Amino acid sequence: MAELGQLLAALDLEQVGEGRYRAQNLGTGRGVIFGGQLMAQALVAAVRDQPDKTVKTLHTIFARGGSMEEPVDIDVDVMHAGRSFGSATVTIHQGERLCTRSLVLLSAEEPDLIRHADEAPAVDPPEAPSDGEAWAGGWDVSIVGNVDINDPDVVAPAQLDVWTRFRDAPDDPVVSQAFLAYATDGFLIGTAMLPHKGFGQSLAHVSISTGVISHTITFHQPFAASEWLLLSQCSPYAGGGRTYGRADVFTADGRLVASFVQDNMVRAIPEGQSPVGQERTYL
């Protein structure tokens, strides 16, 4: 995974015209752009045009994979900019190659009329960074129960609780939302594989073809990406070459701050086709 500084650099969009931006990519080493990067960039771009609001919901469709060797171009089309709500479509492409298109709903802060929220599940707290799984560049990931979604021999229910935080992330609400969007992209395919012996995330693009097709994240309350957040995930369905997953995001003190759902592709690689570079290239 990318260094924290690289992720921040990818969110530093260069304005090249009205509603048009250019951005650099993260060096994830996968051959194609990580989908979480594109969602994070779409979120930041949408807020650039309506800075008086925050993102409520981001819905992204992944059309084609993007090359890490070229910057991405981002086009924002403001659909509505009212007092309480705003909306925009955000298209990310490289030349004529359309990578993603997002629908973004933005909202102004309003007082409660009613309020309730689900409670956080009772799970073990995150392990200390020295003991947990520390990913590169200040992104700490601690998987509850040390479940290994990469191991094809592991069989477990299609549920996965993951603690995540970005150490030293700036105290900025837009950056926190973008970082969380980035983090939510990477676990639900592996979660869907857990009940099936012989399948694990390590086989993706090796003997099976996988990719995120669509991803929707809704933000409920403010939070800080530098503090521990629990991604409580499950996959209630897999079949027909597709999987579906959903999750809630809680703070360490139990506040529900976001929810997300994801549709994925999980299918056999066609005979004679190389898996290299096939991520998020759907035919």
Quick tags:
13-stranded antiparallel sheet; globular; Porin; mainly beta; 4 helices; 14% helix; single chain; disordered C terminus; 283 residues
Structure description:
It is a single chain. The protein has 283 residues and is mostly beta strands. It has four helices and 13 strands.
Provide the fold topology.
Elements (H helix, E strand, L loop, with lengths): L3 H7 L3 E4 L2 E4 L11 H15 L4 E9 L9 E10 L3 E10 L2 E11 L25 E3 L3 E5 L15 E8 L6 H11 L4 H6 L14 E12 L9 E11 L2 E10 L4 E13 L15
Antiparallel strand pairs: 1-2, 2-4, 3-6, 3-10, 4-5, 5-6, 7-8, 8-9, 9-11, 10-13, 11-12, 12-13
Helix pairs in contact: 2-3
Strand order of the largest sheet: 1-2-4-5-6-3-10-13-12-11-9-8-7
Give the % helix.
10-25%
Radius of gyration of CA atoms, rounded to a whole number: 18 Å
The total of helices stands at: 4
Main sheet?
Answer: 13 strands, antiparallel
Q: What is the averaged pLDDT score?
A: 90
Outline of the structure:
The protein is mainly beta. It has helices at residues 4-10, 35-49, 173-183, 188-193, and strands spanning 14-17, 20-23, 54-62, 72-81, 85-94, 97-107, 133-135, 139-143, 159-166, 208-219, 229-239, 242-251, 256-268.
